[in-house]
Known about the structure:
Chain A is mainly alpha-helical. Chain A has helices at residues 2-9, 21-48, 52-55, 70-77, 83-114, 120-129, 135-148, 156-159, 167-177, 182-190, 195-206, 208-224, 227-232, 241-248, 258-290.
Amino acid sequence: MSEVVLAQQLPPKRKKAKVELAQIVGFLILLLVTVAMIMPLLFMLSTSLKSTKEMLVFPPSMIPADFAWGNFKELFVNEEIKFGQQYMNSLIVAIMTVIGTVFSSSFVAFGFARYRARGSQFLFVLVLSTLMLPYPAIMIPQFLLFTKLGLHDSLLPLILPSFFASAYMIFLLKQFFSTLPNELYDAGRIDGCREIRLYWSLTLPLSGPVISTVAIFSFIWSWNDLLAPVLYLDSQENFTLPIGMAAMLSSKFRIAPWNLMMAASLLSVLPIVVLFAIAQRRFVQGIVLTGIK
Amino acid sequence: MSKKMGKVVLSCLALGLVATACSSNGGSKSKEGETVTITHYTIDSPDRTFVEKLIPDFEASHPGIKIKVTKAPYEQFDSKLQSSIAAKNAPDVTSHWGYGGFMEYYNKGMLMDMTPYLNGLTGADYNIPEDVMNIYKVDGKTYGIPLNSYVTVMLYNKDLFDKAKLEYPPTDYEDKSWTFDKMVDYAKKMTVDSKNLAEAQYGVDFGFGERDQRPQYFGANVYSDDTWTNGGKPSEINLSKPEVIEAYKKVYGLIWDQKVSPTPAFSKSVSGQFGDPFLSGKIGMSVVGSWSLAASSDFNFKIGVAAVPQGPNEKVRSVLYVDPLFILKDSKHPKEALEWIKYLITTEVQEKSIELSGGNPPVNQKAAEKYYGNFEGIDPEQIKQVFEGAYKYGFESYNHLISNYSQINELFINELAVVENGDKKVEEVLPSIEEKLKALLERVNK
């Protein structure tokens, strides 16, 4: 009897964790995929640290013979490249676009989500139908408009449209706003909130995930946009990063400076990586909630 | 959202708009009294934007004229130009530096007839051969003044030649022993056709002109002869003619029958999507535009320059790429624009431009002497001989002479890709290209 009791009191024997063959295979596949995914990034880093001569060697080496850290400095000191100025311009445009898009789109989406009026559904479909219009279709009229306003060769034509809402973002935000319970708004009204306060103090604070998603999307789109800046900007002082980087490959008469290009690419993905790292949790929540990535 | 947060957001908004306004030029045009501003539109690459360095000198010698340089990356050059023209904001001076060519610009009515402003200007005034000046004349009217002239050359890798113990090819176009067949023989001796990229190397990369111009080297013409006299609109397409089919067989036979030329897959592997595989040091000879010479000092091997070998066509062995400067039709200051163009083709400025651009070949033949001595490790006399031969046996690039060329060229690139990749034979593909090309020309040349 006592032996039985003792046996019961002993800590349970730790079972050896069995690693199944399927797990090993799965792990190896994941490892391979990870290596395959990370290789282009490593190659980008490697090329960014090569001299022009080494860049042309075939087969290419993964580790540069001499680390050309000067490539990064070259981007900022070379007067023909003006990378620092372009970086600043891109940041201004992207940040302002995020602010414009978030506020204007959320305002419109709030209206569509919270109010019912005759024709509101039709108006919503009308807004969505603008998604079908590709940018080249509105490019020339918009270009004429901004030129007549005297805004050509400035950053404003790249920023101002974002303050007039985006159909895609309106759709995204409206879907989220519609899920907020009516009782909250009723409670707000009982407490004396006016409609604008319901938008500002109730809807926006509760919509963190979707607003992060909209912010990240609009930042990335603005950051990567090439066509609109090319059309509107003439002076190198106003150029954004995509123009500057495209210009590095412009010459068919010279060897493309891939090492500088890769250094510029590395630096240009930094803001997106930082933004994603900051807003990652909310962004993933946003994807789950809106079903869009 | 708290009041504090609201204030922060509004402050950001205000600051951002101020920052934006500060970085803006406001689109203002500098007009001080009688001063006229000429806009020079170019590709944003150092071998074109160097003209900015010439502006102070020009403005000092031409009071009353200011020059503003606007630029765009190569890929977006045409779309920006078209938008500017549509918005009545066109530049004054430019060239066909994008995908479109002279005839495309001319047929779209984009170019100004400079004749009334020339006041007896001739090529001789600027040491430009008259036949080069005539390239951009239509019905006796001048629409462009040549600025730079590139030719097709053969570059060869001296290291690979030495290794294969081959004699270097000649620079003299009159040396008729240097033939296409001899080039293929040489190429065979240098080729290592292997699936292992590290081992593989090829004898020749035959990049004579664009794809539709290549048959010209073999004495065949894709377009009817009236193309060159009627504004670049071919009345007939000859892709089903036996001589054209044979020419294409020879071109692509270098890759798939003789196996002495690199496949597109090999080229992309060693040099990227748009790179030149010759730079990898794994190609013995490369028939290519002379712009490749500009980068010669960066090569990891010794290079030489030679004549393009004699092919079946006794008259044409080189494609000429003469870049002109145009004055656009909407320019309000054609006289001043012409002054800027004339300044750019003077001997002194053309000489200065060689260094500033990193090796652009001047059209001014007096300045060309300086250009020939610009390449380290290559005898200036040899380059001179190759250029002079290329001019003698040259034909202007089709992309400058045929209307709507960007669309035509795209069609050839897309449709011939299956032949280049070895998936189909030339004979299978040419009839469908002819059909599509006829439909395209009918649509665009209405």
